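Re: weekly structure request thread

Next one in the queue (169 aa):
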Amino acid sequence: MSKDLCLPPIRADGLQLEEHRAFQERYWRVQRVAWLGYGTAMLLALLGLTGSGGAFHLQEIRMSGAVAQMPRVARWEEWDEIRVRFLEPRDTHDLTIGTGFFNLFEVGRIQPDPETSRLTTQAHEMRFSAAGPAPHEIRISTRPMHFGWARFDLGLDGESRSVNILVLP
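Done, posted below.
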């Protein structure tokens, strides 16, 4: 053997490794935290907190006489649906959506078509005529155009609530 070839010292357990134990332990800790993060992300996805599907995908906004179901978390450029059910029998129902919604979302289709529609600086106001016994349902197809946090006001037959939707890339 050549004197130029330097062999690492032999450890008590027989391995010839020159290792920095403190660095290796820090690396293992970071690895465990990363695995915990991956597991948490998978659990959140299974519960529906990262997009369509799952128990927590939809949020339900209840107001007196109406219920709106919409995504809690939406995916960028993926179609989703907002459903509004008016539980009280009336000749007309009013739906108001704040402009914060239209900053992030595209509306593909509103079923049934509104009887009247009016734009204000604060919101898009729609009136739907209704016939027959309640409940009456409105479906709105939406698609996020950008990712981010959408905060807007939702009004159903005069009552209003603030709503949040997270749009993931």
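The mean pLDDT is 88. The two ends are 59 Å apart (CA to CA).
Next request, please.
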